[in-house]
């Protein structure tokens, strides 16, 4: 047998090693270059006509109330069919949206955006289509359109709804605890947060139920009355301000006695609706359909929900979303047309009547159909009138910088930690650290 | 040399075939030589091409991103910042916490999993009635999508209205706060992982056990070894290579747990608990990259986790091999 160190016909190992490294490098560089070459995200995609069998895509989250309206649109516009994808939670959709924006690919033609995330979009305006037109000029409440307008005057989102807040309460539980049940009397009892909490103490002393649904939800309600909750007007982050700290202290101070301790939107929170878990809930217009779905429709025997025309500490706006069109859309014109139609006053009033999402438009607010509407599920409360009053009571619009939505998530986590038994001071410090890590 | 067929043997020139035939012959020889040399590479190339695209490239690109800043608003790579991202990740208490969680969940799942899987496989290997039925049913949990499994476990382990807590309260015990207490949450998550993977591993063990020559058992019986003795002295030594394989793969899998903790969390942020009680390292990478929009930091964390996994897999391999050698 012949013994050789380098067998014939083979190159020495070192050479081959170098070749392999070279090949890998070429592959990686080639692919990196390919990725770097990707079309500029701020550049508009080439516009194409909608082809046979193709439809305009829209992704919404939670309940936008669009099912019937889209079916109607599709019937009337055979050329522009619309297909809706519904994601149940905003937080899930936000993550997916971020991923799609990273990839600059796969975004729907119309994207639904939670109001709190709008500042992040306004801060990067050249990835989105300017939706301003004469047709929609002056259509929205000023604070809604301002929040979607970039410094150079581009309108980047059509407001779908607003979130004026009232207090929804369980009249039957109030009665059991010996509190007044009439919605006007109830409204008198909770004009300030101090009154609201004091009434809560009185209630829990006589009832098995808790006073409110979740610490996170009253925190959010109170936060909506703070002018600069997380960021200063020049977008510098400042979470160590007295007003924010006051909200945190009030909420965490009452968490063990008045709150269910469940995190908002969790399974336990949802179950609390059916199991007489709590008596009141901060109630923006869109919350009504959540209450109805979670409690069950028709309501279980004995359960009576009602709405009081009041919000502690004055008015407040919670949420309200937008529709935006990304520049990657290849059907921007159709997308804009559809978005304008579905956010028009007539459509918004129909959504309000059916789902409770409160209109975001000037014309809709004065509509007699809206003002006279009542909700049988809520003990026939005159919801149209109540939520219009609540919308008019809004005096403060909290300033939302580009990081608002991210900091809010951390703030909610800080409160949930205390709900779960963590020391409030430690939890606050963790919150401050986490906010620092966001910059 | 006899293999060099393309050169005519020396000294046979006068009786060589005509020029045309010779050229054809040379061509054929050359082709067959290329065939022998290149075809094997061609046959295995699909793996390497696919691996290069979906395995190697992301790996290298992650390393590349990890030394760059990330422009949050525009979702773009920013400037080169050296090891800054690594400094951030390694000093981040949340990352350290996530590592502890990962190892805790991994130990709570992988160790009992392998032991139970071997036991189940041994049972399935015996003369059971309706063997196929039992073998199929252990694989059933694996077929269920993790998301669906989490739904089931979510209602079992709910803090307030969960089935397990209802039972505990029924017999007068304190309910367990599954989503709050760190170690209990790990226990619940490990339970999901075990439920899903034990049957899968059991089938791999079963396959190995089936390959053990039956006459070994016969001889063992003749020597008077009972069932238990046979299991420890025949079965276990014979399936050692498979044991190494299962331990290494379940280590790698166990250190990458993601779906279970993410879906177990019922707060809207889903970051593995509001206090990161059960945030695993892969979840940390997800949160940093997708939620907080710091791809550079997420990449750095991914590289760190990658190195840890490689290190542990090697350690695992060395240890199991050493044990195997000593006993073999």
TrEMBL record, chain A:
SUPFAM superfamilies named in the record: Periplasmic binding protein-like II (SSF53850)
Name of the protein in its database record: ABC transporter substrate-binding protein
Annotated organism of origin: Nocardioides bizhenqiangii
Matches recorded under Pfam families: SBP_bac_8
Keyword vocabulary terms for this entry: Signal
Domain of life: Bacteria
Entries under PROSITE patterns matching the protein: PROKAR_LIPOPROTEIN
Signal peptide: 1-33
TrEMBL record, chain B:
Disordered, as annotated region: 1-20
Keyword Metal-binding attached: no
Residues in ABC transmembrane type-1 domain copies: 99-316
Alphabetical UniProt keywords: Cell membrane, Membrane, Transmembrane, Transmembrane helix, Transport
Membrane topology: Multi-pass membrane protein
Cellular compartments annotated: Cell membrane
Protein name: Sugar ABC transporter permease
Origin species: Nocardioides bizhenqiangii
């Amino acid at each position: 047998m012949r013994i050789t160190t380098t067998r014939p016909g083979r190159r020495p190992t070192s050479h081959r090693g170098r070749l392999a490294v070279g090949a890998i490098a070429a592959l990686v560089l080639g692919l990196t270059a390919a990725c770097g070459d990707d079309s500029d995200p701020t550049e508009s995609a080439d516009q194409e006509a909608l082809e046979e069998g193709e439809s305009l895509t829209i992704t919404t989250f939670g309940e936008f109330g669009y099912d019937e309206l889209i079916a109607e649109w599709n019937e009337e516009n055979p050329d522009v069919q619309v297909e809706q994808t519904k994601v149940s939670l905003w937080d899930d959709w936000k993550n997916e949206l971020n991923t799609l924006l990273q990839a600059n690919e796969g975004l729907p033609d119309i994207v639904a955006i939670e109001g709190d995330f709008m500042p992040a979009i306004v801060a990067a305006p050249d990835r989105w289509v300017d939706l301003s037109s004469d047709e929609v000029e002056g259509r929205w409440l000023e604070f809604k359109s301002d929040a979607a307008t970039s410094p150079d005057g581009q309108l980047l989102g059509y407001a779908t709804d607003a979130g004026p807040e009232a207090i929804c309460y369980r009249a039957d539980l109030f009665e059991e605890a010996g509190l007044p049940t009439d919605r006007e009397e109830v409204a008198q009892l909770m004009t300030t947060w101090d009154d609201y909490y004091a009434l809560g103490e009185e209630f829990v002393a006589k009832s098995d139920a808790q006073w409110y649904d979740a610490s996170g939800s009253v925190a959010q309600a109170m936060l909506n009355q703070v002018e600069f909750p997380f960021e200063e007007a020049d977008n510098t982050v400042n979470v160590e301000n007295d007003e924010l700290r006051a909200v945190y202290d009030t909420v965490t101070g009452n968490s063990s006695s008045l709150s269910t301790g469940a995190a908002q939107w969790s399974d336990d929170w949802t179950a609390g609706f059916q199991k007489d878990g709590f008596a009141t809930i901060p109630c923006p217009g869109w919350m009504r359909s959540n209450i109805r779905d979670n409690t069950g429709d028709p309501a279980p025997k004995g359960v009576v929900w009602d709405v009081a025309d009041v919000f502690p500490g004055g008015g407040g706006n919670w949420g309200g979303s937008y529709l935006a069109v990304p520049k990657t859309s290849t059907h921007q014109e159709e997308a804009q047309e559809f978005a304008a139609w579905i956010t028009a006053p007539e459509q918004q009033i129909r959504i309000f009547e059916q789902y409770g999402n409160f209109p975001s438009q000037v014309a809709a607010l004065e509509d007699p159909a809206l003002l006279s509407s009542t909700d049988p599920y809520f003990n026939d409360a005159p919801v149209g009138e109540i939520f219009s009053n609540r919308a008019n009571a809004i005096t403060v619009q909290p300033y939302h910088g580009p990081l608002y939505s991210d900091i809010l998530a951390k703030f909610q986590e800080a409160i949930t930690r205390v709900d779960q038994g963590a020391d409030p001071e430690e939890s606050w410090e963790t919150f401050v650290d986490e906010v620092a890590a966001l910059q | 040399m006899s293999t060099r067929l393309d050169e005519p043997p020396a000294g046979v020139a006068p009786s060589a075939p005509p020029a045309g035939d010779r050229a054809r012959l040379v061509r054929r020889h050359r082709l067959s030589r290329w065939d022998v040399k290149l075809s094997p590479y061609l046959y295995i190339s699909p793996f390497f091409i696919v691996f290069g695209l979906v395995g190697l490239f992301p790996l290298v690109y992650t390393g590349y991103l990890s030394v760059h800043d990330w422009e949050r608003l525009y979702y773009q790579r920013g400037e080169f910042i050296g090891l800054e991202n690594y400094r951030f990740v390694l000093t981040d208490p949340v990352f350290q916490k996530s590592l502890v969680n990962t190892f805790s969940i991994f130990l709570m799942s992988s160790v009992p999993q392998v032991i139970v899987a071997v036991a189940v496989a041994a049972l399935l290997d015996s003369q059971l009635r309706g063997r196929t039925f039992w073998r199929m049913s252990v694989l059933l949990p694996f077929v269920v999508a993790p998301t669906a499994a989490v739904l089931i476990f979510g209602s079992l382990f709910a803090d307030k209205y969960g089935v397990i807590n209802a039972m505990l309260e029924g017999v007068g015990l304190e309910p367990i706060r599954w989503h709050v207490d760190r170690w209990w949450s790990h226990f619940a998550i490990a339970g999901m992982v075990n439920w899903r993977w034990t049957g899968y591993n059991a089938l791999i063990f079963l396959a190995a056990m089936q390959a053990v020559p039956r006459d070994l058992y016969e001889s063992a019986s003749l020597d008077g070894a009972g069932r238990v003795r046979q299991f420890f002295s025949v079965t276990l030594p014979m399936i050692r290579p498979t044991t190494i394989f299962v331990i290494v793969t379940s280590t790698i899998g166990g250190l990458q747990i993601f779906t279970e903790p993410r879906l177990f969390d019922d707060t809207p942020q889903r970051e593995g608990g509001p206090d990161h009680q059960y945030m695993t390292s892969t979840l940390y990478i997800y949160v940093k990259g997708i939620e907080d929009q710091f791809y550079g930091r997420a990449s750095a964390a991914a590289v760190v986790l990658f190195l840890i996994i490689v290190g542990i897999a090697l350690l695992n391999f060395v240890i199991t091999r050493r044990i195997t050698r000593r006993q073999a």
